[in-house]
Every structure is written in C-alpha cells, then in structure tokens.
C-alpha cells in the first residue's frame, strides 16, 4: 500500500514538462488546477460541496465587489475591517502609495524605539541608569550620556533625511493627476483621491493610476495599446479591448456618469496575467478576463483617450501585490560584528566578576584591617565586591565601543556618496547616474559569490536590428561595394532613393541594394516582399510619417528592414494589405492569416495578387520550415550553411518560404478553415490541424539574421566577474533558444562548453536520490555523508533549464489532493498519523532534491533558467542562499524581477527605458549592466577592505584604552578606580581617536581603481572572509591587550622611584594618568598611520591634528580658570602643565609609544617580504604596471552543427493578433452617430449574444 500516492498526486503526472510555456501562475490555486479536467468525485464530497455552495451566494474566488460611480457602496459596514481595537477601515484601499516610515508626530518616539532595539544602544542606556546610582557609580554620568546623545542624534538625522526623500517621492506619485467623474462631469483629480468604483479618463502617454476595467477608447472597437515596461521590462506594445456592450454605450460623458454597472471579481492578488470577474449591467452578465484590464504602472500608447472603471487601487493593485515582501537586509559583517560585541560583553562580565571577587578578597584581607581606608559605610566584603562588580561594568564599558555603530553608519554613508558621485558609472545618454539607494550594504558588494541576472533590458537593450540575410543561397550583409568586393571600411548604405526609408537602418552591403534595384534576381524582391506582407504589425501615420506598432521587437525589425530596402508596408484593412514595392503601391487581398503560437513556431499569410494568383507566404524557425519544404529545393543546403554561420555569430534566425496555391485547392481548404474557425470546442487544435494541410511543399527563399543587441560591455563585464570567481546565472522568461543565443553572445557560453538540459540533469538527480535512499540504514549514522561531484573533474559545463523542468526537478509542480482528503475530519487517528508521516516524507524528499539540484548547478560554470515566472526567479535565488550560504546579488529591470531583487542579499535595478519598478525596490541602481564590474570590483572591494580595517583597528584601540583600568586594579585594591581623567574617557572615542580611523574607512585603498579592474583576482579576499573573521578579531584583541600592558607598566615602572629636576616627585596619580593618556593617544594615532595604505593630506592632517587637539583640550581642561567655574567637574587643575614640563615624562611617553609600535613595524615588514599578498605584490610594482590593458574579445570559432542554438524567436506576441486583424476589430471605421447606436443597439447586442 503506497500511502504517498494515496495522499497526494501530482497534477498531470504523465506529461513531460513543456519547454515552450511559462509554468502556471504564481498564485494558481489547487481548485483552479482541479477545474482543468473532469474527475470522479466521492459521494460524501459532493454532498459537502453542494451544501457549501448553497451557503455562499457568490463564487468562492469572486468576493470582490465594485459598484460604478457609487463611493458610498464601498463604505458599507460589511466591507469594514477592524484595524485597531474599535477603529475600522474599509477593505478597499485608497489609491495613495505610502513608503515613508514616520510623520511629524511619530518620528521622535518611533525612531528612539527603533534605535534602542539595537543591543548596543540599549546596553548604554542601562549603563546610564547604573551611573545614576550613587552607590555603584565610578564615572560621571556625562561620560556615557554625551557619546550616547551624539550617536542617537547622528542616526536620527540620517533616518530623517532618508524619510524626507521617501515623502517627496510618495508625494510626487500621489499628486499626479487624471480626470475622474464627479458630480456628473469629468474633473481633474489627484491620484491619491481616486477610489474603487470611480470612472476615469486617461489620455495618450498617461501612466495608468490603478487597475481599471477598460470601458471604451478612441480606437476602433475600443482597443487600447499599452506599454508594460514597468511590469515586465518589455517596451513592445500590447493591446487590450473593451467589452462590445461598453464600447457601444459608454463613449460620451453623460452615459459614463450614469453608468451603474456592478462587478464581482477575484480578490487582489499578484497574478499579472490572470483576472476572473463578471460585469452585471442591463440585467445581463458579461465575463471579464485579463484582456480587458489595464494595470497600474503601464503607459497608454497610440490611443488618444480611454475610459475605465477602477477595480483595485493603491496597495491592492497587482503591481504592488507583485512587489514581494520587503526584507530588512543586513550584511555578513553586521552579523559577525554583533556576535563579536556579544563576545566582548561576556568578556566584560567575566573581567568585572573576577575583579569584584578580587576586591572582596582584598577587603577581607587588607581593607578591614587598615583604619585609614575606612569609608564610613561599614559594608561587608562580599557586599563591597557586589557593588564593585557594577562599578567595573561601568568603568570597562568602553570595551563595547558606543561610537562603533554610528562610525560604521558614517563610513557607509560616505561610501554611498562615492558611488553616487562616480562619473565612470554615469550614463550620459539618459542622464542617469549610479545611485546607492541604501547605505547599509556597501561592504557586502565586496563579498558576492553568485549574480542572478535578468536578460531582457538587463543584458540586452531589447532592440532588434536587421544584420544579414541569405537569399537564394547567397549571404548578404557584409561590408562590400556594389561590385561585390569586400572592404574593411565602407560607407553606410544611402537610402535617400527610397521615400519611405526611416534612416534608422545601418546597412553596409551595397551589393544587395544593387540586386534589389536591378531586379535581376526576382527572389531578392520576393524575399523582402514576404517580410512586408507576412506579419501582424499595425501602422498609422504621424505627421505624414509611417509609424509601426509591433507586438514584438523582432517583427518590428523585419518590417522596418523591408521598408528601408524598398518594400514598405503602408496600410491594412480587414481583408487587404497595401505595400509600396520599389515606389509602386499595390494592394493584395488577405484571404487568411495562419497565426503564430509556441507549438507551430511559424506564421503564414495567404493573399490574392492583383493579377488573381493565390500565394502563401510563411516565415518561421528552421526546424519546422525544413520539415515542410518541397523535395526540390536547390538552395536548401546553402541556406543551411548560412544558418550555421549566422548561429555562430549569435544572430537570431528565421526561414522564409512561399507556395503557389491553385484556386480549387484553396476553396477546398477554406471550407475546412471556416469550419475550424467557428468550432465550439478545441478550436485552437482544430485550426492547427487545418494549417498543417496547407503549409506543405513550400519553396525556400532564404533566411533572416537579426541581432538582439547586447548592452555595451556585457561580455567584458562577465569575463572580469568570472575571473573574480563570481558565478553568473541568467533567469529569464524568454524561450530556451533565445536565452541560449544570448548566453553565447555575452560569452557566458562558448563553443567548448558542454550544455546540460533539464532532461539530462533530471536523470542524474534521480540516480543520486536512489543512491542516497539506498545508503539510508543503520550504518548511515556512523558514516558521515561524503559530497560526491555529479560530473567528472575538468571540462566546462553549463546548465540550461526551463521553468517547467525546474518545477519537475524541484518537486514544485502544483498538486491536487486526493478527493478522499476533502473530508473535513479524518475518519481514524491512524489515518491522521499516516497522513502526517506521508507529509513529512514528502517534505524531506523535496528538501533533499532541492539541495542536490543546487549542488549540481553550482558545479556548472554558468546556469541559464528560461521560461521562469517571477516567483521561480526568487525561489532559485533563495535555494542558493539557503543551501550554499553564499552572498547573492540579483539584477533586473522590470516588475517581474522585483521579487528576485528583494530575495537576494543585494538587489540592483537597471534604470532606463524599461521602467522604474525594479529600481524602486533595489538597493543600488544604474543604467547599464557594464557598470556592475565597477560597483563590485572597485567600490565593493574597497568598501569591504575599508570596513574590515576600520573594525579591526576600532576593537584594538578600545581594548588598548580600556584594559589599562584592568592592570591598574591590581595596584589599587580592585577598588574600581579609573586610570584616566573622566573627561578623557568621555572624549577619547568622540574626538581624540575618531577622525583618523573614519578617514581610513572612507578613503583608504590598497590599489587604484584601474588596477582593481585589471586584476579581478584581488576580489576573492572578500568572498573568503579573509580580512575580518574571528581569528582576525582575536588577533586585534590580543594586540590591544599587549598594548594596554605596555601603556600601563612602562609608565608605572618609570614612576616607581622618580624625582623631578626641581626635586619634586611628579609620580602622583594625576600625572600618571596624563602620562598614560598621552602615550595612548600618540600610539593609537600612529598605529592607524601604519594601517593606512593610501596617504593623502587629509589623512596626515587628521593624525597629527588629533594629537594636537588632545593636548590643546587637555591643557584647557586642566587650567585654573575652568576649575574655578566648575570645581567638582574639573579636578586635574595644573596637572598637564606640571607633568609635561618634565623631560623624563616625555621620554617615558616616547619610549612607551615606540615599544608599542616597533614590533608592529617589524611584523609588517616580514610579512610583506616573506608572505606578500596579491595586493602587496601589485603595490610593490604599481609604478611599473602600465595603464589597464584593453580586454581582447575572444574570436568566435566557426563550428558546424551549431544550429542547435539558433533562435527563431521573432514572435513574442500572444496568439490572437491574426484573429484581431481578420475580424476587422483593429481597423478604423467611420463611427455611426451615438443616437443611431443607442436606437438599435439593444437588438443588435441580443443578436451578438445569441450568436
């Protein structure tokens, strides 16, 4: 009995994953999946379901109700949700977007609350409270309060600046305007005032403010063209179309104002491609789908105006729902730093406890028997020890540096500004600078292991250009003159002879122009005529110029190429298409359009020429075209060779062919075509079968080659990142062939790469799962699992996997429950137990399978995931984060990349023509992919090195400063007496030692930016955490401990038996404190000088300036004048001037500093001489190194049989354009007067519904 199979079965188990389709929608429910096929339902389940349906008046998934032009409807009590206690608000969100955190009232309390959630700040607040208790305080309260106020103030100001910027951005969006019906008229209203149920009017090039139901537009049949760049990064236009009934009756303002339609639809969700709802109006219901919905974030194009009804507003819109959960991101160093602070706190407690025990023992042995030490309190030794424990907690609190976190924030803020100001990451064409949108992740840019990149708009420009073609076996497109001689340098073809040329085509083959103009080879003209006639492009005229509206950039590139080369598509109607052929206008009757879909991989058009001949023209992928060619095709092999050449140049190819059709043959076929067109069931399958009958025995004309233009510098960037041991995965919704082609174009893949596909690794993973299952036994507990590679060592491998295979392999396929589980209560306890065990087994299997997949994929040098959904992109990123514990970066440009960007440790948005949704959710943004190498290899590496150096030094200087108290305790009866003046303790971290280390954290660099790019191998130190880890931390602590010993014991020895020049002994406690403090300031400031790799005037000034500042302030604080004003706060009157006038004291200070620093100099010299790092070697020879060499792109090696990576993806539009054209719905007609429409509209509509 197989319990697993009984309890849960996979949907469509027997079907293989389809590489051509994007998997199910992210939010698709099990109920939706079950609706896809009939199943046998148990009787008890049927009874339960019927009872539930009788209780619910509406469909289960259609509970969102919208009433047009009726705001009061949405404020009814049953639409109100309790927000806080008795405060209620409507479940319908308003249209205002809120990304800010504070307002005027909440800023101070909320900000302080957030800051005190940070352990260090809360720790110092507790210390401040302890210092206010007289019995235990050993330091003045201001020693903690002043630094704490500075820290809190700086952080609050930074948070305030960030939040003001968010307020400005929100106001800018919320105060955009559009027209809304109010009081029966269209009135200008701000976006934030729009509510669900409002009827709005939008104009050409307007952003769509909410998710709206399209009611009518200025276009025929109320079509509306939208650009979805904000959603998916694609700039090609998509069309939406209103219901016929709303198109007819809702054109005028008065009819829109009285519109009272009622909508029931699905609740707000993140499914960009799906919508289910029903419009109830005029006692009739009309089904609604995604083709009738305009989504927020889209831009209306090529449509003068449109009207819509707001369904989802603000936070309920699909673009906002699709943005994913905002995650608070922290760096790896942040987590490590916190653990180190906790370690220091434990050390602090242990030290304080030890010293408190020492004090109790000393008090019992010495203090109680020394009458001159009696303090008048009469405490027992144990109680005195208890009080001294808290006293030492206060004294030694500087082990945990209060200024650490604020210093880190200042450094990160400065590094963010350096990124913003970097002119080498500024894109002048779009006036777009790089932008660090967060200030908390800079050093993590120097630790990236994996980059996950979108393709369209990120690696590519999403601009297609016609580069080459093969006609009748002859390749055209090289640089050659009209005499067919090749030239390295030749002028661009002049298209001035063609009145319809747009001048945008850069073409250099003059011989092709000669062939077209001479007409010697009829196949050449036939080739470009086919491009001009076989497509679904729309055309209109703007200022007398032709303007093409293509559903895919590929198709637009082909039609534009034909236009420039003399065959211009001019106009189309429902049944005709007009072409200018070398200046002569000819109109052809369109008899049928055989539309494209992902299975057919081709489209055809059947036309009747003016002479009465019938001809079929077809274009499509070579794999499907070659199967349908006539046996007698003399140029078949030559075209195949040309396709191989085009593929080796990573160009996207299509084959073109035609066929003459006899009148009788067409009439017979047309009957079948018309019957299939009106089939009530399986219409698409019936049409495809009819298409197959006519698309055979084709005559090959040739092939086109289109370049999907990469962004500048993409191959160079990928090459350098690979040398930095960063792996790049491409996650895209495009087809497998297209993604593979781009992989070769950007040199992620090479001719030497062995490519593995989904079906290949599925077998490998199944074998591995079987081996792991067989190993599970008694001995598995004693033998630890040994990781085994999936592939033999050596060789360059890449993985290309589709979304469908990804779901299959990761066991993420949607499942449907066995119907027996629909019962609400299990029948027995045994059944419940078995079900729980089965679920656990399935989860364990899934987790193991996912881990195996990640291990296998990480063995590959490159991974390309295609036809994946936004949720799958985020899932892949999360799997690598979870199982590899690696630092990840995701880069994209559209709303479909937002989830991935938010999931990765660092998200980068490409800002440009593709939209700003990804940018708004990213941590960093810039305009071109190539800037990524500078962001990581220069700014990221520098930030990591600076932060590590800063932290190591910061811990060192605080241990050196604080542990002097520890050594002093052995000589003062463990009495929690401080070794320094109180004001020195207060100002040490704030003034005396802060500026030099801050400047190192901001400005230091081991090598220049050019050398950082030239030697990407320098990047690996961050990936391996070599510069800051627990080992480095304890070395810094040990260094600080030794320094504190030297700082205490050398002056202590010097003061034991000392007489000054005047016969007086300067060996009092206050002079001793001044001596130690002076030696400490000189030592720690010179130490940061030794740690500085990049010297500037500012660094030198800060070091010597800090020392000078210390002496200046000390002499002021020790003056008699300030003592007279505040006698209790300033008690070291005259100490500095008295002590520092003794040469002996200066010699002591110099000796102490020298003993602290000289061993460091010796160790540094030996390490750089004997064990130099890569950066040390480059620094040593940097004068000899020339300017960065130009990266030489590898030459592509021609190889036969490369056609397997040919892309024929010239049809990225959805199915249905052919039907749109041939039905005439997209063709402009002279509109009848509205009165006439209304007069007989009802009867006409009834006929439409009945048909």
Automatic annotation (TrEMBL):
<feature type="transmembrane region" description="Helical">
    <location>
        <begin position="1033"/>
        <end position="1057"/>
    </location>
</feature>
<dbReference type="InterPro" id="IPR036412">
    <property type="entry name" value="HAD-like_sf"/>
</dbReference>
<keyword id="KW-0479">Metal-binding</keyword>
<dbReference type="InterPro" id="IPR032630">
    <property type="entry name" value="P_typ_ATPase_c"/>
</dbReference>
<feature type="transmembrane region" description="Helical">
    <location>
        <begin position="339"/>
        <end position="362"/>
    </location>
</feature>
<feature type="region of interest" description="Disordered">
    <location>
        <begin position="1"/>
        <end position="54"/>
    </location>
</feature>
<dbReference type="Pfam" id="PF16212">
    <property type="entry name" value="PhoLip_ATPase_C"/>
</dbReference>
<protein>
    <recommendedName>
        <fullName>Phospholipid-transporting ATPase</fullName>
        <ecNumber>7.6.2.1</ecNumber>
    </recommendedName>
</protein>
<comment type="similarity">
    <text>Belongs to the cation transport ATPase (P-type) (TC 3.A.3) family. Type IV subfamily.</text>
</comment>
<dbReference type="InterPro" id="IPR023298">
    <property type="entry name" value="ATPase_P-typ_TM_dom_sf"/>
</dbReference>
<dbReference type="InterPro" id="IPR023214">
    <property type="entry name" value="HAD_sf"/>
</dbReference>
<feature type="transmembrane region" description="Helical">
    <location>
        <begin position="389"/>
        <end position="408"/>
    </location>
</feature>
<dbReference type="InterPro" id="IPR001757">
    <property type="entry name" value="P_typ_ATPase"/>
</dbReference>
<keyword id="KW-0472">Membrane</keyword>
<keyword id="KW-0812">Transmembrane</keyword>
<dbReference type="Pfam" id="PF00122">
    <property type="entry name" value="E1-E2_ATPase"/>
</dbReference>
<feature type="transmembrane region" description="Helical">
    <location>
        <begin position="950"/>
        <end position="971"/>
    </location>
</feature>
<feature type="transmembrane region" description="Helical">
    <location>
        <begin position="1069"/>
        <end position="1088"/>
    </location>
</feature>
<feature type="domain" description="P-type ATPase N-terminal">
    <location>
        <begin position="75"/>
        <end position="145"/>
    </location>
</feature>
<keyword id="KW-1278">Translocase</keyword>
<feature type="domain" description="P-type ATPase A">
    <location>
        <begin position="174"/>
        <end position="237"/>
    </location>
</feature>
<feature type="domain" description="P-type ATPase C-terminal">
    <location>
        <begin position="919"/>
        <end position="1173"/>
    </location>
</feature>
<dbReference type="InterPro" id="IPR023299">
    <property type="entry name" value="ATPase_P-typ_cyto_dom_N"/>
</dbReference>
<feature type="compositionally biased region" description="Basic and acidic residues">
    <location>
        <begin position="43"/>
        <end position="54"/>
    </location>
</feature>
<keyword id="KW-0547">Nucleotide-binding</keyword>
<dbReference type="Pfam" id="PF16209">
    <property type="entry name" value="PhoLip_ATPase_N"/>
</dbReference>
<dbReference type="InterPro" id="IPR018303">
    <property type="entry name" value="ATPase_P-typ_P_site"/>
</dbReference>
<dbReference type="InterPro" id="IPR044492">
    <property type="entry name" value="P_typ_ATPase_HD_dom"/>
</dbReference>
<keyword id="KW-1133">Transmembrane helix</keyword>
<keyword id="KW-0460">Magnesium</keyword>
<dbReference type="Pfam" id="PF13246">
    <property type="entry name" value="Cation_ATPase"/>
</dbReference>
<feature type="compositionally biased region" description="Acidic residues">
    <location>
        <begin position="25"/>
        <end position="35"/>
    </location>
</feature>
<keyword id="KW-0067">ATP-binding</keyword>
<feature type="transmembrane region" description="Helical">
    <location>
        <begin position="139"/>
        <end position="161"/>
    </location>
</feature>
<dbReference type="InterPro" id="IPR059000">
    <property type="entry name" value="ATPase_P-type_domA"/>
</dbReference>
<feature type="transmembrane region" description="Helical">
    <location>
        <begin position="983"/>
        <end position="1003"/>
    </location>
</feature>
<feature type="transmembrane region" description="Helical">
    <location>
        <begin position="116"/>
        <end position="133"/>
    </location>
</feature>
<dbReference type="InterPro" id="IPR006539">
    <property type="entry name" value="P-type_ATPase_IV"/>
</dbReference>
<dbReference type="InterPro" id="IPR032631">
    <property type="entry name" value="P-type_ATPase_N"/>
</dbReference>
<feature type="transmembrane region" description="Helical">
    <location>
        <begin position="1144"/>
        <end position="1167"/>
    </location>
</feature>
<feature type="transmembrane region" description="Helical">
    <location>
        <begin position="1100"/>
        <end position="1124"/>
    </location>
</feature>
<dbReference type="InterPro" id="IPR008250">
    <property type="entry name" value="ATPase_P-typ_transduc_dom_A_sf"/>
</dbReference>
């Amino acid at each position: 009995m197989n319990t697993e199979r009984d309890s849960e079965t996979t949907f469509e188990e027997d079907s293989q994953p389809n590489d051509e389709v994007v998997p199910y929608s992210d939010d698709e429910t099990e109920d939706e999946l079950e609706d896809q096929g009939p199943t046998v339902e148990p009787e008890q389940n049927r009874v339960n379901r019927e009872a539930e349906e009788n209780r619910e008046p509406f469909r289960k998934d259609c509970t969102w109700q919208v009433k047009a032009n009726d705001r009061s409807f949405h404020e009814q009590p049953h639409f109100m949700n309790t927000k806080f206690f008795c405060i209620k608000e409507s479940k319908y969100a308003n249209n205002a977007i809120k990304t800010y955190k504070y307002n005027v009232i909440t800023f101070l309390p909320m900000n302080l609350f957030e800051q005190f959630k940070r352990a260090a700040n809360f720790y110092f607040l507790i210390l401040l409270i302890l210092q206010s208790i007289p019995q235990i305080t050993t330091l003045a309260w201001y020693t903690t309060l002043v630094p704490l106020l500075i820290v809190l103030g700086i952080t609050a100001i930074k948070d305030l600046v960030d939040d003001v910027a968010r307020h400005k951005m929100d106001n800018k969006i919320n105060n955009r305007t559009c027209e809304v019906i109010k009081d029966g008229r269209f009135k200008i209203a701000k976006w934030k005032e729009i509510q669900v149920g409002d009827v709005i009017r939008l104009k050409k090039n307007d952003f769509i403010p909410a998710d709206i139901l399209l009611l009518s537009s200025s276009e025929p049949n109320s079509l509306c063209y939208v650009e979805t760049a904000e959603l998916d990064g694609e700039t090609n236009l998509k069309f939406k179309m209103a219901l016929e009934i709303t198109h007819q009756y809702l054109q005028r303002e008065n009819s829109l104002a009285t519109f009272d339609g009622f909508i029931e639809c699905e609740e707000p969700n993140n499914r960009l491609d799906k919508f289910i709802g029903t419009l109830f109006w005029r006692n009739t219901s009309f089904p609604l789908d995604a083709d009738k919905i305009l989504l927020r974030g889209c831009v209306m194009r090529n449509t003068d105006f449109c009207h819509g009804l707001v369904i989802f507003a603000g936070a309920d819109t699909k673009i906002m729902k699709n943005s994913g959960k905002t995650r608070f991101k922290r760096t790896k160093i942040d987590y490590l730093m916190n653990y180190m602070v906790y370690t220091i706190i434990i050390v602090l407690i242990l030290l304080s406890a030890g010293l408190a025990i020492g004090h109790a023992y000393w008090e019992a042995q010495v203090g109680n028997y020394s009458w001159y030490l009696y303090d008048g309190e009469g405490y027992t030794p144990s109680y005195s020890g208890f009080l001294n424990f808290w006293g030492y907690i206060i004294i030694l609190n500087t082990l945990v540096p209060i200024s650490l976190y604020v210093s880190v924030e200042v450094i990160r803020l400065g590094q963010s500004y350096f990124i913003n100001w970097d002119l080498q990451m500024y894109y002048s064409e779009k006036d777009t600078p790089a932008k660090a949108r967060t200030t908390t992740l800079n050093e993590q840019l120097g630790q990236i292991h994996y980059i996950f990149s979108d393709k369209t708009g990120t690696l590519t420009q999403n601009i297609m250009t016609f580069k080459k073609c093969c006609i009748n076996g002859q390749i055209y497109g090289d640089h050659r003159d009209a005499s067919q001689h090749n030239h390295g340098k030749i002028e661009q073809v002049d298209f001035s002879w063609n009145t319809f040329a747009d001048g945008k085509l850069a073409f250099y083959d003059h011989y092709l122009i000669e062939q077209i103009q001479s007409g010697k080879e009829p196949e050449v003209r036939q080739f470009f005529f086919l491009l001009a006639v076989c497509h679904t492009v729309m055309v209109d005229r703007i200022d007398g110029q032709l303007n093409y509206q293509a559903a895919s950039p590929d198709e637009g590139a082909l039609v534009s190429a034909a236009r420039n080369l003399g065959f211009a598509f001019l106009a189309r109607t429902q049944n005709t298409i007009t072409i200018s052929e070398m200046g002569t206008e000819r109109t052809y009757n369109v008899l049928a359009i055989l539309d494209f879909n992902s299975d057919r991989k081709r489209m055809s058009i059947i036309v009747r020429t003016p002479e009465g001949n019938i001809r079929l023209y077809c274009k499509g992928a070579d794999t499907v075209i070659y199967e349908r060619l006539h046996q007698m095709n003399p140029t078949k092999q030559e075209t195949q060779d040309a396709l191989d050449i085009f593929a080796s140049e990573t160009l996207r190819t299509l084959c073109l062919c035609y066929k003459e059709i006899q009148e009788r043959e067409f009439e017979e076929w047309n009957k079948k075509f018309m019957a299939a067109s009106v089939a009530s069931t399986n219409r698409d399958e019936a049409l495809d079968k009819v298409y197959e009958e006519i698309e055979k025995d084709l005559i090959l004309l040739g092939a086109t080659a289109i370049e999907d233009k990469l962004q500048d510098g993409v191959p160079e960037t990928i090459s350098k990142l690979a040398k930095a041991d960063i792996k790049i995965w491409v996650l895209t919704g495009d087809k497998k062939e297209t993604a593979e082609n781009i992989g070769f174009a950007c040199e992620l893949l090479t001719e030497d790469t062995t490519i593995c596909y989904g079906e290949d690794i599925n077998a490998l993973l199944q074998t591995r799962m079987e081996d792991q299952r067989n190993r599970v036994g008694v001995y598995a507990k004693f033998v630890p699992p040994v990781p085994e590679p999936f592939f033999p060592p050596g060789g360059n491998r890449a993985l290309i996997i589709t979304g469908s295979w990804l779901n299959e392999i990761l066991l993420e396929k949607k499942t449907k429950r066995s119907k027996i589980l629909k019962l609400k209560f299990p029948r027995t306890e045994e059944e419940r137990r078995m079900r729980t065990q089965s679920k656990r087994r399935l989860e364990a299997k899934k987790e193991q399978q996912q881990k195996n997949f990640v291990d296998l994929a990480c063995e590959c040098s490159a991974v390309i995931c295609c036809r994946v959904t936004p949720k799958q992109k985020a899932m892949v990123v999360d799997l690598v984060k979870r199982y590899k514990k690696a630092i990840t970066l995701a880069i994209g440009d559209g709303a479909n990349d937002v989830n991935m960007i938010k999931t990765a440790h660092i998200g980068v948005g490409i800002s440009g023509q593709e939209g700003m949704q990804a940018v708004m959710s990213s941590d960093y943004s810039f305009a071109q992919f190539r800037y990524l190498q500078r962001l990581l290899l220069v700014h990221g590496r520098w930030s990591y090195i600076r932060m590590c150096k800063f932290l190591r030094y910061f811990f060192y200087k605080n241990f050196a400063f604080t542990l002097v108290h520890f050594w002093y305790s052995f000589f003062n009866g463990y009495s929690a007496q401080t070794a320094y003046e109180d004001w020195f303790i207060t100002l040490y971290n704030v003034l005396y030692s802060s500026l030099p280390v801050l400047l190192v954290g901001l400005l230091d660099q081991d090598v220049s930016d050019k050398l950082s790019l030239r030697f990407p191998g320098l990047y690996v130190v961050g990936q391996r955490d070599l510069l800051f880890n627990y080992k480095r931390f304890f070395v810094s602590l040990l260094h600080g401990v030794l320094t504190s010993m030297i700082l205490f014991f050398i002056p202590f020895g010097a003061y034991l038996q000392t007489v000054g020049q005047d016969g007086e002994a300067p060996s009092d406690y206050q002079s001793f404190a001044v001596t130690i403090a002076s030696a400490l300031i000189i030592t720690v400031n010179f130490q940061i000088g030794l740690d500085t790799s990049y010297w500037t005037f500012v660094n030198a000034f800060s070091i010597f300036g800090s020392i000078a500042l210390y002496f200046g302030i000390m002499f002021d604080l020790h003056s008699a004048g300030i003592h007279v004003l505040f006698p209790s706060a300033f008690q070291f009157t005259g100490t500095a001037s008295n002590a520092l006038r003794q040469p002996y004291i200066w010699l002591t200070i110099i000796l102490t500093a020298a003993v602290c620093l000289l061993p460091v100099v010796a160790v540094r010299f030996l390490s750089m001489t004997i064990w130099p790092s890569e950066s040390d070697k480059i620094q040593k020879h940097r004068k000899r190194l020339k300017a960065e060499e130009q990266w030489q792109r590898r030459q592509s090696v021609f190889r036969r049989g490369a056609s397997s990576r040919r892309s024929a993806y010239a049809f990225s539009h959805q199915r249905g354009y052919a039907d749109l054209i041939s039905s005439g719905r997209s063709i402009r007609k002279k509109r009848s007067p509205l009165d006439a429409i209304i007069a007989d509209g009802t009867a006409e509509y009834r006929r439409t519904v009945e048909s």
